[in-house]
Fold this protein.
Amino acid sequence: MADVSYIFSMVLQIFMLVLGGYYTVVSLVGCLFKKEPVCKNPGSKTHKFAMVVAAHNEQAVIGNLVDSLNMLNYPKDAYEIFVIADNCHDKTAEVARQHGASVHERFNDTLKGKGHALEWIFEKIFDMQTQFDGICVFDADNVVHPEFLNQMNRQFNRGYKAVQGYIDTKNPYDSWITLSYAISFWSINRLFQYARYTLGMCCQLCGTGFALSTDIIKEIGWGATCLAEDMEFTMKLALNNYKVAWAHDAIVYDEKPITFSQSYKQRVRWMQGHADVANRFFFKLVKKGFKEKNIIPIDCAFYLFQPIRLIAMFMILLMGYLQTFYPNGDFGFFQMQYLFSTPLIWNTIVIAQLLYLPTVLALEGKMNWKVIKGYVPYYFYTFTWFPIAIVGVVKKNNKEWFHTQHTRTISLQELNK
């Protein structure tokens, strides 16, 4: 039994070490080499955009989003704002109209959720007399930076068909959980998105603050209607030889849940969708990557592996705990430090990991005393992903949509202050 435990724990930990090493190398190389992918002949066209907002009972926040979109530093005749009042039972539609949006009310008790609402509005936009070059998607609780469309237009002129913007947080200091979200997103923006873009790989759509060419939606169809529609469409793009680009200065400020209970429900939904997409796309992407000798689909497949990776990390931590505190239990687990000849090497790795995140946040210009004090609860937040991943994998076939309530009425002017 001890031999089986040793072999299993060794294979699991070495696999996680290799996978973690891959992520570390990609993030470091991508961040250190601050070089935008080459574009020989960028265009100068002013593209026309449809700004789409999916809203379900969002009367408290929809006005500030529409106001921020109306204040974009972009020709007013080159974009139009569309709000989907999706199964709303409040004044979302009324408030959005008052602030100048074109509102489309949708009522459907069967096809619920953001993915279905987007598919519905896309078809309406395609049938309009006005021809749009691209569609930008937002959540109702967002506030958008004035340069957002200029940055998206720049990337469209560089030839990209799908572009993700920078997801920032409009309420990072409301609670320990909102600050934890903020730290997480700030690091992802730099270590995952920015790094992959500079290496010419595929970034990930994040549910809001992204732009898609109308041509690409018409060509491959939307069809992303699961609990993680953004991830589903990213994988669909990768399978069709398209990659998502990054616009680091196209900033969208997103509202984060204030309480742990809200956060737990939201993240379980994310993990359910993540596990569902992984189940349907993982092997297709791996097969495509090896067949075509292309790292991009394989990298996307690695991203889909995240729920299993979190569960594996939890198992490794549990093994370490048992091995340390129950030395006479004869568990026989392999310990990672056995791979390193001296304690100095192992301790250096541990210290480097602890310094890694603060360095990244400093590069992003986000480091301050509030963030430093938020490190302890942030690490607790990261540990809570372990049970959430387990629940998400178990419930991956549950398609019920959970709506996160948004109440933080923060305007663009307040953010600027």
User: Anything to note?
Assistant: The domain at 1-34+47-417 is CATH 3.90.550.10 (Spore Coat Polysaccharide Biosynthesis Protein SpsA; Chain A). The CA atoms of residues 63 and 99 lie 6 Å apart. The first helix runs from residue 2 to 32.
